[in-house]
C-alpha cells in the first residue's frame, strides 16, 4: 500500500514527538439542504472498487462489479445471501445511486460518506438497519499515531452492504477468504452472522492497536521510572491524546451492540445473539483496558513531575554544598589579603600553614555537616 | 454590520489575551410581578425588523411587515404555512402584542426577551411549543472570543415564529433563499420541517465555531509543545473559558431534541423525525468534540507547567555550573593574594604558571563532572 | 437594620481576607425526646412579629397580630385566603402554640426553628405541605461573605404560613405591597400562587447574590490575569467557599420544585404549574452559573500557581545572570591580586587596561549569551 | 471508663500528628465453613453485660440478666415489649446461644460479632429485621482521631435486641433513662419507635463528632490562612483520613433508612415513618457537611502548597538581592586589590574615597532597581 | 510449587521498585473463526490434572481422572452430585472434548481458556450457567506485586465444573477437605452451595491480598509522614497500579453476584440465597476498602510532593543564609585588600581588630535577622 510507505518517509523526528492530528469537520455548504452527500475525507484518486459476493450453503460467487446494475439486490425468490463490499466512499454519486437501488434513506447515505461521523446504530422501519464504526490503524509506532477509517454497514434481510474508506487494503479479506474456503460457520448462517464476522475483524484489530499502545505505555513507564532526562510530558501527552481518541471512537460501540442484543430485532436471529454478546464482551475489555491505561498515564505524569522536582532539589543541593564550602574559605584567604600595617598573623613563621590547617578544618566540618543532613 | 466593525476597532492587544466577558443577569424589579417582560440585552437603536413568509407547494410570498396587523395568523381555511421572522427582541411592547395575537403564555414571552435564558423546550397544551437556543458567533479569533445570540421559536400547527437578537444580519437568510428557490424539501413540508431547517443552520454554525476553536487549540498546542516562552497559562485559560461557555450553551439542546423525538407530539410529524434524529447526532458530535478539546486543554496545561519546571531546572543548572567552576578558582587566586611573610610558592620561579595549571585542572575536572551528570 | 450596621463595624481588614464562618450545629440535649423544639440560631432580643393578611378578589386586610388567638385559621365557610407572616423563629413556645392551632406535626415545627436544616419539601397526608429554604444575603462584598436566613412555609388549602429569621427586615414586603396595590395576578389566585410569589422573591434574590459573586470573580480574574503580586490563593479560597456554601443551600431546591410540579398534588392547582416551572428554570440557571463560576475559579487557581512559578523563574534568572557576569570578573581581578614574585603581566605598561579590556569582552560575551537564551 | 483513661496516657505527641490506625480484617480460618462466628475486635476481659428491659404503657421492668434463660422472648400472650441490651460481643458462644433462643439466621450472628462489617440492613422473611451501624467516638482531639464502635439491632414484632462493643459505657443510657422516667413518646410506642430512638442517639452523636471535626478544620484553616510555618500537609492528611473514614461508616445508613421508609414493612408501623424520615434528613445533613468539609480541605491543601511556593519565592528574592548588591561591590574592591605596577587610580589622593562613592552609587542603584520590581 | 521459588530468584532489587507487569492480549489468528479455542497464558509443561468428586449425604468419592470417559456426567437417575475439578487450562483439546461431553457452547469454552477475560456471568437457556472470576495471589510483598489466576465455573443442575490455571497448587483443597470431613453444610446441599463455597474461598483470599496491600500502604504512609528521603513517588505509583489492577478484577463480581441473587434462577435454590448475599457483602467490603486505599494513596502523593517542596525550601534557606553572611564579610576584607596609596584605616594601630569587630557585628546582625524570620 502506497500510504504506509509514505508514512515511513515522513517519519517524525525525535525532536517533534507530537504529530499534528488533522481535524476534519463536517463543512456543509449552508445553501445545500440536509441530505445532500458531501465527502470530506482525504482526496483519493483511485476509483471505487465494488465486489459482489453471493453465497449460501452450497454456492459461492465472488465477482468484481463492473456496472452499477450488477449491484441490484437478488430477486426475492432466490435463496442466496448477497454481500456488496464497497471499497471507497469518495464517489458520492455512486453511493447515491446504490442508495436508490436498495431504497435507503438519504440521511443514511450522508452518514456513510461523512468520515467524521461518530459510530452509530440506526434501525429503520423499512426492514434494514444501519451501523457505522471506526477501523483503527496504527500509522506510526514511535511516537504512536492512530488513524481511523470510516466503516459502515447496511443489513437487510437477505443482503449486507459494507462500505469502507479507500485508505488501506480491503480489511475484510480474511472473512472473504474464510467464506470462500467454507471454514467456520460463516457460510451456513445469514447476513446477521456475516455482519458479526466483519465487526469481529474490526474489534480484533482494536486488540492489535491496544497492544501497540501498551508497548508505547510500557516504554514510557520505563523512561519515567528510570527518571530518564530525555523524556518530557509531551510524550505522555501524545500517548494520552491517542488513547482519548481511540476511546471516543470505540465507546459508542458499547451501546450499539447492547441495543442490537436487547431489542427484539427481526434482522438479528436468536442463534446469532451469543456471538454479538461475545463481541460486546470484547468491546468492554478494550474500553476497560484503555481506561486503565489512561489512569496509569495520569499517575505516570505525577511521577514524572516529582522526578523533575527531585532533580531540581539535587541541583540546588550541589550548589549549596559548593557555596557553603568555598564561601568561608574565600573569606579566610581574603582576611589575610588585607593590607593593614599591623596584622600579627602575617609575621608568624608558620602563619601560612596555620591558615591552611584552619581551612582544612572548616572544609571537613562542612562536609560532615552535609553528610549528617544526607545531602551528598 | 456595524457591530463586527466595532469589534475590529476594539481588537484586544497581545498583552491582554483575556477579554473581559460581560455577564448579563436577569435583574427583575422586585416590584413587578412574574410575567412582566424585561429586555436585558445590549442597547440597540435599530427598529425591530419583521418579515412574513407564506408558502406552500405552489406559492411563496415574502414581505416585510409594516403594521402589526399583518402579523395575524392565517385563517384556518387557507392552506399556507406562515413563518414570521422577527429580527430584534429589544422592543418588549411589540413582542407582547405579537404574543397576544398568537395567544401565547406570558412566561413564554418573558423567555423570548430574556437574552440570558438557558436553551429550553416547553410544550404547551394549547397546541404550540416553545424552543429557545443560542446562536454562537466567533467575535475575535486571536484570542478567541465567542458571543452568543438568543434565538427563540414558537411552533404552531400552521405557523412558525422565529425571534433573534438584532446583533448580526438575519442568520436565517440561507433557509429563506432555499425556500424561495424551491431548493430541497423545505417547501414541500410543514412548519416542523422548517423549524428543523432553521435549527440546522444554528447547529451547522456550531461546527464553524468548533473549527475556529480547534484552530486556536492547534496553535496553543503548537506553542506548548515547542515550549514557547511567550505562552502563559492565561491563554489556555481564555480558551478553556470559551469552551466552557460554548458547552453550557449547547448542552441543553441534547435533551431538548431528544424530548422532541421521543414524546408523541402532534406538532412534529413522523416524516420529520429522522431529520431531528440527524440534528441530535450533530449536536452529540459537537459536544463530544468540545469535551475532547477540554480534556486535551487540561493535559496541555500540565505539559506547560512541566515545561516551566524544566526551564527552571535548566536555569538552576547554569547557575550551579558557573558557581562550581568559579568558586574554587576564586579561592585559589585568593590564597596567593595573602600577604604572609613566608609563603614558599610565591618565591618559586614558575609559581604563577603552576597556579594557572592547577586552575586549568580544576576547571577541566569540574566540566567533566558536570558532563557526566549531563548538566551541560 | 441594626445588624447590617454591626457588620460595618466589624468589617474585615485586608490582612485577613477570609472571614471565619461560624458553624451552627443541631445540638439537641440527648435527654429530650425527638420533636422537642430547640432554637439554635443567634440570640435575638426582638419579639416575634406576626402579621395576618387576609385577601380575596375584593378584599384585603393586613393587621399585625397581637394575641395568638388572632392567628386562628379562617372558618371553612369564609371565602378568604389567610397568610400568616411570622418574622422571628427564636420564641419556640410561640411556634409550638401556632403549630397546635394549625394542627401541624411536631417534627415539622422542629424543622422550622432548626436554622441549620437543609432545604426540604415534605407533603403531609393531612392536607398541607411543608417547605423550607434559605434566603441568601451578601453580608460583606470585599471579601465576599454570604449569610443565609432560614425561611419556611406551610401551605394549606386556604392558608399559607411563612416563617423567617429575625435577621433582616421582612423580605416579603414587596409581595405584600403588590398584594395591597392589587398589582399582578397575586390576589386573583390561591395560596399556591402566593407561595410561588414568595419563593420567587427568594430566588430573585439569588440572582443578586450571584451578581455580587460574579463581580468578585471578575475582580479576582483581573488580579490573576494581570499577575498581581498582592493576590494570594486565599482570596480564591474564600470565594470558592462562598460558592460551595451557596450551592449547597440552593441545590436541594431543584428536586423540591420538581417534585411539586410532577406529583399530582391537590394543593398546587394546574394553573400555577407554569409558574413553578418558571421558578425551576431560574433555579437551574442559578446552579448552572454557580457551577461555571466554580470551574473558572479552579482554572484561575492553576493560572495563579503558574504565575508564581514564572515569577520564581524570573527571580532565578536575575540571580544567574548576575552571578554569571560577576563571578568571572571577580576571578580575573583575583588573579592579578596574587603576590607571586614573577608575574609578567603586572610589569606591562598597559596591563591594567588590558585587563579592563578582557573584562569588557567577558561581560559583553555573557550578555550576548543570555540574550540569545532570551533571559534578559 | 478504663479505656478513655488509657487513651490519655497514650496521647500522641505533637511530633507525630498522624496516629496509626489499626486495620482489622475478617480473617476467617479457611477450614471453617461460612456461618462460624469469629470475633475480631480488640481483646476485652470484661464479661458481657446483658440487661433485660420490659415495658408497656403501665409497666417498666429493668433487670440485669444473670442466666441466659432470662433472655427468652416473652410469651406471645403477654402485652409487653422486651428490649435486650447486650453490652459486649466478644463472647461468641453467648451470642450464638442468644441467636438460637430467638431463632436467628447464623449469618446474621456472624455479622453481629464481625466488628469490621459495614453498616447494613437485612430484612428476613421470618418476621425480623437486622440492622448494623457504627457509633463514632472522638478518641483524641488534636490531632483528631475517631474510633468506631460496632452496634447491631434485631427488631422483632415484640422485641428489640441491641448489641454493642464493650468499649465505652452503655451508649443507650439516655434512652433507658427517658424510658424509665416515662418522658416522651418512647414508652407509648412499639419496638419500632424504640429502634428509632436508639438510632437517633447514634446519629445525634454524629453531630458531636462533626462539631469536633469542624473545630479541627477551623483550626487548620486558620493555620493555613495565616501561613503558619508549623503546619504541614500531614495534618491536612490526617484530618482528611478521619473524614473519609467517617463518611464510609455513615454513607450506607442513607440507603438503609430509605429502604426502611419506602418498603412496605410489617415491622415499622405507619406512625413511626415520620420519625424515620426525620432520621434520614439528619443523616443527609451529616453527609452533606462531611462532603463540604472534604471539599474545603482539598482547597486548603492547594492554598498551603501555594503558600510554600510563595515562601520559596521570598527566600530566592532575598538571596538574589544579597548577591546582586555584594557581587558588584566585591568585584570593585577586587579591582583595586590588583598589583599592577601602573594603576593610576591608586595614586590619586582621594581614590579610596572615590571608590567608596562609586560603591554607594552602585548599592543605591541596585536597591532602587529591586524596589521598582517590588522585591524588597 | 516451582513458580513461587522462581519468583524468589528473580526478586526485584530495591533500585527498581516497579516490576514490569506483562500484558497478555487476546491475539486470535484473524483467519480462525470465532469460537476457536486459543490458550494465551504462560507456557506450562505439566499435564492437566482432573479430579472427579461425587458426593451426597451418605457418599463421598474422590478420584483422579485418567481417561476422559470418566468425566461423563452422572446418569440422570443417580442421586449424586458431581464436581469435576480441572487444574490446568492450557490443553485446549481436552477442554474442547470436555465441553462436548457436557454439551457446552463453544464461546463459553473460549472464555474458559482466555486467561485475559474479565470476570463475567452468563446464564444459558440450556440449564447451566457460566461464571468466571480471578483468584488473586500476592507474588512479592515488597514491592507488592499481585498476580491473577483465571478461574471458571460451569454450574448444572447436578454437576459443577471448576477450571483453574496450573499456576499454583489446587486452590480448592480446603473445600475438598471440608467436604471429605463432612464438616459444615457443604455436603448436605446441592452444587449451588458448592459453587458458593468455592467462590467464598476466592473472596476470602481477596481479604488476605487486601491485608498485604494494607501493610504496604501502612509502610508507605509511614515513610511519607516521616518524610523519608528514600521514598519516591514511584513506590506510590507501584502500589496504586496494583490497587487499580485488583479493583478491575474484583469490580465485575459485584454485578455478577447481584444478578445471581435477583434473577429468578432455577439453578440457585432459595436456601442458598442468604449465602450468596453474604458473599456480595464481602465483595462490597473489599471494593470499599480498595477505594479508600486509593483515596489515601492520592492524598499521600500530595503530602509527598509538599515534603519535597519543603525540603527544597530548607535547602534554599541554607544557601541564602550562608550567602548573606559571607558575602558582606568577603566584601569587607576585600575593601582592606585594596592597594590605594592613601587608606587611613590601614595605618591605624588596631585597624585590623576593628575590622574583626565590624565583621562580628555584621555576622551577629545577620543571624538575628534570619532568626527573626525563623529561617534557622
Structure characterization notes:
The structure is a homopentamer of 376-residue chains. Chain A is an alpha+beta fold and 376 residues long. Chain A has two domains: 3-306, 2-Layer Sandwich (Beta Polymerase, domain 2); 318-372, Magnesium transport protein CorA, transmembrane region (Methane Monooxygenase Hydroxylase, Chain G, domain 1, Up-down Bundle), CATH 1.20.58.340. Chain A contains nine helices and seven strands, in the order H-E-E-E-H-H-E-E-E-E-H-H-H-H-H-H. The first copy, chain A, has helices at residues 2-9, 92-101, 106-113, 173-180, 191-225, 233-262, 273-335, 344-347, 351-372, and strands at 49-55, 60-64, 81-87, 120-124, 128-141, 144-155, 159-164. Chain A has a seven-stranded mixed beta sheet with strand order 2-1-3-7-6-5-4, sandwiched between helices. In chain A, strand 6 (144-155) and strand 7 form a beta hairpin. In chain A, helix 6 runs antiparallel to helix 7 and helix 7 (273-335) packs antiparallel against helix 9 (351-372). The radius of gyration of chain A is 34 Å and the shape is rod-shaped. In chain A, 40% of the residues are buried. Mean pLDDT of chain A is 81; it is low at 1-31.
Kindly report the average pLDDT value of chain A: 81
Report strand order across the widest sheet of chain A: 2-1-3-7-6-5-4
Low-pLDDT runs of 5+ residues of chain A are 1-31
User: What's the SSE pattern of chain A?
Assistant: HEEEHHEEEEHHHHHH
Number of domains of chain A: 2
Largest interface: A-B, 69 and 65 residues
Task: Could you tell me the CATH topology label of the largest domain in chain A.
Answer: Beta Polymerase, domain 2
Strand coverage percent of chain A: 5-15%
Question: What is the helix content of chain A?
Answer: 40-55%
CATH architecture of the largest domain in chain A: 2-Layer Sandwich
CATH superfamily of the largest domain in chain A: CorA soluble domain-like
Q: How many strands, what sense, and barrel or not for the largest sheet of chain A?
A: 7 strands, mixed
> What is the CATH top level name of the largest domain in chain A?
Alpha Beta
User: Helical region count of chain A?
Assistant: 9
- The count of strands of chain A amounts to 7
Classification by helices and strands of chain A? alpha+beta
**Given the C-alpha coordinates, what overall shape of chain A results?**
rod-shaped
Rg of chain A computed from alpha carbons, rounded to a whole number of angstroms: 34 Å
Oligomeric state of the chains in view: homopentamer
Q: What distance lies between the first and last C-alpha atoms of chain A, to the nearest angstrom? A: 58 Å
Pfam families (chains A, B, C, D, E): CorA (PF01544)
Keywords (chains A, B, C, D, E): Cell membrane, Ion transport, Magnesium, Membrane, Transmembrane, Transmembrane helix, Transport
GO molecular function, one term (chains A, B, C, D, E): cobalt ion binding
Subcellular location (chains A, B, C, D, E): Cell membrane; Membrane
Amino acid at each position: 500500500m502506497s500510504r504506509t510507505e509514505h508514512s515511513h518517509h515522513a517519519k517524525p523526528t525525535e525532536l517533534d514527538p507530537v504529530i499534528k492530528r488533522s481535524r476534519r469537520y463536517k463543512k456543509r455548504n449552508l445553501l445545500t439542504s440536509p441530505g445532500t452527500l458531501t465527502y470530506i475525507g482525504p482526496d483519493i484518486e483511485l476509483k471505487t472498487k465494488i465486489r459482489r459476493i453471493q453465497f449460501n450453503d452450497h454456492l459461492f460467487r465472488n465477482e468484481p462489479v463492473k456496472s452499477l446494475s450488477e449491484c441490484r439486490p437478488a430477486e426475492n425468490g432466490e435463496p442466496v445471501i448477497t454481500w456488496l463490499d464497497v471499497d471507497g466512499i469518495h464517489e458520492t454519486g455512486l453511493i447515491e445511486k446504490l442508495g436508490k437501488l436498495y431504497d435507503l434513506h438519504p440521511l443514511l447515505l450522508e452518514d456513510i460518506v461523512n468520515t467524521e461521523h461518530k459510530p452509530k446504530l440506526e434501525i429503520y422501519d423499512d426492514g434494514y438497519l444501519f451501523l457505522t464504526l471506526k477501523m483503527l490503524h496504527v500509522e506510526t509506532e514511535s511516537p504512536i499515531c492512530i488513524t481511523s477509517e470510516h466503516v459502515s454497514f447496511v443489513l437487510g434481510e437477505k443482503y449486507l452492504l459494507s462500505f469502507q474508506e479507500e485508505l488501506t487494503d480491503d480489511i475484510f479479506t480474511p472473512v472473504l477468504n474464510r467464506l470462500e474456503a467454507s471454514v467456520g460457520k460463516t457460510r451456513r448462517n445469514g447476513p446477521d452472522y456475516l455482519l458479526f464476522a466483519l465487526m469481529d475483524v474490526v474489534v480484533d484489530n482494536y486488540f492489535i492497536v491496544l497492544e501497540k499502545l501498551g508497548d508505547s505505555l510500557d516504554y514510557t513507564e520505563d523512561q519515567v521510572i528510570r527518571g530518564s532526562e530525555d523524556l518530557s510530558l509531551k510524550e505522555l501527552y501524545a500517548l494520552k491524546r491517542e488513547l482519548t481518541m481511540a476511546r471516543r471512537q470505540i465507546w459508542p460501540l458499547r451501546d450499539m451492540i447492547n441495543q442490537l442484543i436487547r431489542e427484539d430485532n427481526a434482522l438479528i436471529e436468536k442463534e446469532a445473539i451469543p456471538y454479538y454478546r461475545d463481541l460486546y464482551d470484547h468491546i468492554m475489555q478494550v474500553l476497560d483496558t484503555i481506561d486503565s491505561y489512561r489512569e496509569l498515564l495520569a499517575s505516570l505524569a505525577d511521577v514524572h513531575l516529582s522526578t523533575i522536582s527531585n532533580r531540581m532539589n539535587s541541583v540546588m543541593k550541589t550548589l549549596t554544598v559548593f557555596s557553603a564550602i568555598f564561601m568561608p574559605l574565600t573569606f579566610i584567604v581574603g582576611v589575610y589579603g588585607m593590607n593593614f600595617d599591623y596584622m600579627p598573623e602575617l609575621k608568624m613563621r608558620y602563619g601560612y600553614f596555620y591558615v591552611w590547617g584552619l581551612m582544612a578544618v572548616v572544609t571537613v566540618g562542612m562536609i560532615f555537616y552535609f553528610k549528617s543532613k544526607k545531602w551528598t
